[in-house]
Specification:
This protein has about 425 residues and is α/β, with parallel strands linked by helices. About 30% of the residues lie in helices and about 20% in strands. The protein contains twelve helices and 18 strands. Helix 10 (about 355-370) runs antiparallel to helix 11. The longest helix is centred in the middle third of the chain and has 17 residues, at about 220-235. The chain starts with 7 loop residues before the first strand and ends in an 8-residue tail after the last helix.
């Protein structure tokens, strides 16, 4: 095989961690106790039911590779419990029914781009390698198998530690917001050591490396691991992208600023939203109200330019979400390439499942830039890919590149295709 025809795209993704103490109440406590076992559906003996088995699904992997690129992402995998009807997650406070715990199905969810991004990149025809650390027990192996099912290369996954993290998602509707509770303390990736990853080997021949702000937030050792990775990526000439993804349950704004400022000089492409830029670096868009649907384009241009000027980014992508309600959002994006400010068309979204929408944007952007698309075409593809993910149940975006291109051309009427 000619190595000249085999790039490698490497994406490193971080997972979102959160306090575990909230999971000590009611249903969450019982779910937390049982989810490290294979959960068997419970049934009401008086009312027999037919239960549909759902295949575990990964949301975000650490490394991704395609036949032409090697993309690497590192991060943590999480389990996402579902209610008896997986298409409509129950409220936390309604978790009991007729004196018995409702049936629980679970998906594996890597909170921050890669299993999710690895699968998405595979859907677009790219090869993806996922890098993370997972336990060597059956739950960890199930996570590995779930990635393999979609063709993601798992050869760089380190095995060890004791936990796969869990996250509980109560899906909102109308004026009731969605709620997420994380139980991921002491997950395998959060306790990983720098010696676990040989970045010279992992990044050898790679084209792209992606990580998010969640990974360095997991622990001080994860921050050191990320710094090792981006330094070696820079030395090897690998393009580095980062989604800021600030999570207040993981660290303070002061620590995020300090740690991320050390990582940013190695980043070529920065992905953010208006809240991330403000929370991490104190940069905000003026005259913008994301909750009232008022977005000021000039303010976002200023945010992108300030980020690029401060850290030397080649490109800055900003997602533009107007939250009308938990069920309906307006969705668009902007890409600044150092000269041009390219705004996408806006989509009105009636949301099926919002989880993974931002990661779909990142995967779409990386795919577009690797494919040589112009800045305008790249942001259009990224936004359209993410818009389609909002209509898909679960963490993965299963749409193909052709389906994304079709949405861009048609405008999204939703008419049946025959």
């Amino acid at each position: 095989m000619k190595t000249a025809n085999l790039f490698k795209l490497v994406l490193a993704v971080a997972l979102v961690a959160a306090p575990v103490d909230m999971c000590g109440q009611g249903l969450l406590k019982k779910l937390g106790q049982g989810l490290q076992k294979v959960l068997a559906p419970t049934s009401n003996t008086n009312k027999p039911k037919t239960t549909t088995t759902r295949t575990p699904q990964l949301s975000k992997p650490s490394i991704i590779i395609n036949t032409e690129h090697k993309d690497i992402v590192d991060g943590d995998l999480l389990i996402r419990p579902y209610g008896e009807n997986p298409s409509c997650d129950i409220q936390f406070v309604m978790a009991r029914r007729e004196g018995a715990l409702v049936n629980v199905y679970f998906y594996l969810h890597n909170r921050n781009v890669l299993p999710v991004n690895g699968v998405r990149m595979r859907n677009y025809g790219e090869n993806a390698v996922f890098v993370t650390k997972l336990p060597s027990h059956e739950i960890g192996q199930m996570a590995v198998n779930s990635l393999r099912k979609f063709g993601v290369n798992t050869s760089e996954i380190v095995r060890g530690g004791n936990r796969v993290g869990i996250y509980y998602c109560e899906k909102g509707a109308s004026q009731r917001p969605s709620k997420v509770i994380y139980d991921r303390k002491y997950s395998s990736i959060s306790t990983a050591a720098r010696a676990d990853f040989d970045w010279n080997k992992i990044l050898d021949g790679a084209t792209w490396f992606h990580f998010t702000g969640i990974t360095p937030a997991l622990s001080d050792s994860c921050a050191e691991i990320c710094l090792d990775a981006v330094k070696i990526a820079k030395k090897l000439g690998v393009t580095v992208s980062c989604d800021l993804n600030f999570r207040k349950n993981l660290w303070t704004t002061e620590k995020a600023d300090r740690v991320m400022s050390e990582l940013m000089p190695y980043v070529n492409v920065c992905i953010a939203n208006e809240e991330d830029a403000k929370d991490v670096f104190g940069i905000e868009a003026e005259n913008t109200d994301i909750y009232g649907g008022k977005l000021n384009h000039e303010g976002y241009k200023s945010v992108a330019k300030q980020l690029a000027d401060r850290f030397g980014f080649e490109k800055v992508a900003i997602t533009l979400r107007s939250s009308i309600s938990a069920s309906d959002n307006d969705w668009a994006g902007m890409l600044y390439d150092g000269e041009n400010y390219c705004f996408s068309k806006s989509y009105h979204l009636h949301i099926v499942d919002r989880v993974g929408g931002g990661d779909s944007f990142g995967a779409g952007l990386i795919y577009s830039l690797l494919s040589g698309k112009s800045s305008q075409a790249a942001i259009e593809f990224a936004v359209a890919a993410s818009a389609l993910k909002h209509s898909v149940e679960g963490d993965f975006n299963h749409v193909s590149a052709d389906e994304v291109d079709s949405l861009i051309k048609s405008g999204g009427s939703g008419r049946v295709q025959r």
